[in-house]
Amino acid sequence: MNAIVDIYRKYKECGAVTTDTRTLKGGEMFFALKGENFDGNEYALNALEAGAAYAVVNADSDAAKSDDQRLIRVEDTLKTLQELARWHRSMTFVDGKPLTVIALTGTNGKTTTKELIREVLSVRYNVTATEGNLNNSIGVPLTLLKINSETQVAVVEMGASHPGDIKELVDIALPNYGLITNVGKAHLLGFGSFEGVMKTKGELYDYLRRTSDKVFLNADNPYLCRMASERNLHSDPERPYSLLIPYGLEYQGGKVLPSDAEHPYLRISLPSTVINTNLVGSYNADNVMAALAVGEHFGVSLEDAVKAVEAYSPSNNRSQMTRTERNTLIVDAYNANPTSMAAALDNFANVEASCKVALLGDMLELGEDSVAEHVAVIQKALSLGCAMCCFVGKEFSQARKSFDVLPEGVGFWETSDQLASSLEGMKVENAVVLIKGSRGTRMEKVIPVL
């Protein structure tokens, strides 16, 4: 503890940390992290020369042999980064009370939900939130260390691909509130099964139950309700562990309005208002309802929350609709798993268009379930009656072997670059095109030719 207190004092002198020498502006504390393909210790002295105030290095590294007084030698730089972030979070108060930290995780919709919550809460508070999807064992500490004297609420996104991941992150962030967007089939190679997904995501509920803090619960989601019930979490104030703040489209008497060419984006009708978003896909309704629930709990009026949601436009290839000179593109190419793929295809089925094209990339990290899950996606895509269905990646190529005959307009490519080259010759025009795939397939590469 004394070591962290000393490092924290030096961190407060800096006010910022970095793990990348390319982002140095001067005065930061540089953490020399190690990975499978890199070793930040090799750049620690360069970081000091480039203006870093201190460099935290592994004690057994070559950099640690230098007599530079700005070096901080530790046994494990990542563990130290995490401990520093936890200490900073513990030492941050607002009006004499511990800082409010909202943690959210889930199989799908984490980043969109986090962005919507940020927009809604920013109506009333100074919010520090996860940038992009920096939601792992490095990203969460970096987010916490961006909390400053003006921060009133922190919104921390947490990702997981193995059992224990969420437990590790909540023990760093120490949240007072938690929200799981949903649970589905993703990272099955790491989790082992869907039950493994539920158990790991449920580590957020486990933590909040122990600390008697609050859970925002989508009451429409049977899996989340089951997870809450198994932990004896209730919304009835007369029952033990009354920790739930329920919400949900159906729970609150709302519905998704039909989409068409004139209204292509998600529209939600609530008993008292209609919300016109810039999001594509009915699956985003849960994300919107989550943001409204968080806003309401923290005193943001429904009117102001709706305005914030309506002003939000997605980026980074998440639920984006783009109109080019020749086509309308529905781009959701940041990640993909069986649950999100099914949701995207269900939404695409409801899109009214004379010509529809589906460009789908592999879903990664599914382990022994991969072939079966990719076969299911092919079957679902073919049922939509698209003019073209194009599948990219080795997993889809393996699944293709399960089909004796495929209809005209169906093709398989090894990479998105190859598909892009083929599309140049096809000259797709006047079509609504769904582009969906795991980040590793880089499906966004096909956008320029459409």
Q: State the strand order across the main sheet.
A: 8-9-7-10-11-12
Full CATH superfamily name of the largest domain: Mur-like, catalytic domain
Shape: globular
Query: What is the count of helical runs?
Result: 16
How many individual domains?
3
Overall mean pLDDT: 92
Largest sheet, if any?
A: 6 strands, parallel
The gyration radius over C-alpha positions equals 24 Å
Distance between the termini: 57 Å
Which runs of at least 5 residues are low in confidence (pLDDT < 50)? none
The counted number of beta strands is 21
Task: Summarize the structure in words.
There is one protein chain. This protein is of the alpha/beta class and 450 residues long. It has 3 domains: 2-75, Udp-n-acetylmuramoylalanyl-d-glutamate--2,6- Diaminopimelate Ligase, Chain: A, domain 1, CATH 3.40.1390; 92-311, UDP-N-acetylmuramoyl-L-alanine:D-glutamate ligase (3-Layer(aba) Sandwich); 320-449, Alpha-Beta Complex (Protein-Tyrosine Phosphatase, Chain A), CATH 3.90.190.20. The chain contains 16 helices and 21 strands. The protein has helices at 2-14, 44-49, 77-90, 110-121, 139-144, 165-173, 188-191, 194-201, 203-211, 222-230, 285-297, 302-311, 338-349, 370-382, 394-400, 416-426; strands at 17-18, 29-31, 54-58, 71-74, 93-94, 97-98, 100-105, 127-129, 153-157, 177-180, 214-218, 244-247, 255-256, 267-270, 273-276, 320-323, 328-332, 356-361, 388-392, 410-413, 432-436. The strands form 5 sheets. A 6-stranded parallel sheet has the order 8-9-7-10-11-12, with helices on both faces. The protein has a 6-stranded mixed sheet with strand order 16-17-21-18-19-20. Strand 16 and strand 17 (328-332) form a beta hairpin. Helix 1 (2-14) packs across helix 3 and helix 4 crosses helix 12 (302-311). The longest helix is centred in the first third of the chain and has 14 residues, at 77-90. The N and C termini lie far apart (57 Å).
